[in-house]
Amino acid sequence: MTQKTTGNSRRAFLKGAALTGVSLAAGKASAATPDPLITEVQPWASGLGDGVDETPYGLPIQFESDVVRRNVEWLTADTISSINFTPIHALDGTITPQGCAFERHHSGAIELKKEDYRLMINGMVDRPLIFTYADLERFPRENHVYFCECAANTGMEWAGAQLNGAQFTHGMIHNMEYTGVPLRTLLEEAGYDTAGKWVYVEGADASSNGRSIPMEKALDDVLVAFKANGEALRKEHGYPVRLVVPGWEGNMWVKWIRRIEVSDAPVESREETSKYTDTLEDGTSRKWTWEMDAKSVVTSPSPQSPIMHGKGPLVITGLAWSGRGAITRVDVSKDGGKTWETARLAKPGEKMALTRFYLDTDWDGEEMMLQSRAMDDTGYVQPTKSQLREVRGLNSIYHNNCIQTWLVRSSGEAENVEVS
């Protein structure tokens, strides 16, 4: 179903609001009641503001102090080995500010100076090498925008609606522009053995987080990155150097990367055997499910972003992504999946990057069961939770890319529900 045109009614509504003095936020002002914010000189127009040296590194204004990462205290025993969540409900566009981008640590975020940084390549190579940070800067570099999603994103929703907020159900994701050196460049510099079918990548933190990656992927699009969104990586994102593995689960994006070993077989580490495998209904587990399948979520309206302005023009917006390609289409349903309207993509989808979608509509004040459904350029269509359960049961944690449902009440408030 195609989106119905709302432009004329929207323009008429907004024009009427301007002529009558109706406030879209509160709906109480009128032309007969002068607005002191317009008719009176305000403090911010009565004196001088801050000088250019007030904040040498720019910070968000105090009025946006609620737009922060959040942790779920009961999720893990300690925040040293835990995760926090991107406030996706409060952001727009697709690029995630580093200060809002989710964190996942296995033994805490470490401080490692550039001068102390070393990256070793060993194993099945002609020349085992050790690179300093300055060495990496001398190689030809590339810039790419990619999303990083934890495999456990939405994992708590397998058995039913659990957490009330897009930040908590889908916030283990961020989307940034990375700058770095293609891994294949460094492997070629070391003279990797073509008989080597795998690389094992390992981090410098105390957990020694490590993952095996097929050589085909390593030579394709993996980056050894040292910048994000144009500036140095933040400590919590692997400063000074991390791995970027486009489209694949975030646990493989090893931070503080210190070693890359070429081998003829996977290492079978803890993070790819007892963890980050998909347990099925019969107790068996699937391995090597690296790619993040097409997924989407409505970020507003949502539990943390309710409708505040009442009936009339409403912008429904959200994010879609696919680890197998680019998003080509997103549909939105207001009735729990009975009917669908095609949303407007802010720009054409990009491979392994977030895509912003909008549905410009009119809200009549009735309850809505909001859903979004993403499709990528491989032809894959985002499944319902029931469709996933038919294959994987209720024992899984990772790779839950089901269609999410928000119940939007007539008050404008929203909550996490499940359609069965």
- Tell me the major beta sheet: 5 strands, mixed
In angstroms, what separates the terminal alpha carbons? 22 Å
Number of domains: 2
| Count of discrete alpha- or pi-helical segments spanning 4 or more residues | 7
The strand count comes to: 23
What is the SS-derived class? alpha+beta
**CATH topology description of the largest domain:** Sulfite Oxidase, Chain A, domain 2
Give the C-level CATH assignment of the largest domain.
Alpha Beta
Q: In which order are the strands of the major sheet placed?
A: 4-3-12-7-8
Shape-level CATH architecture of the largest domain:
Alpha-Beta Complex
Helices and strands, in order, run as: HHEEEEHEHEHEEHEEEEEEEEEEEEEHEE
Rounded radius of gyration (Å): 24 Å
Low-confidence stretches: 1-5, 18-29
- Specify the CATH homologous superfamily of the largest domain: Oxidoreductase, molybdopterin-binding domain
Mean pLDDT: 93
**How big a fraction of the residues is strand?**
25-35%
Helical content class:
10-25%
Shape: globular
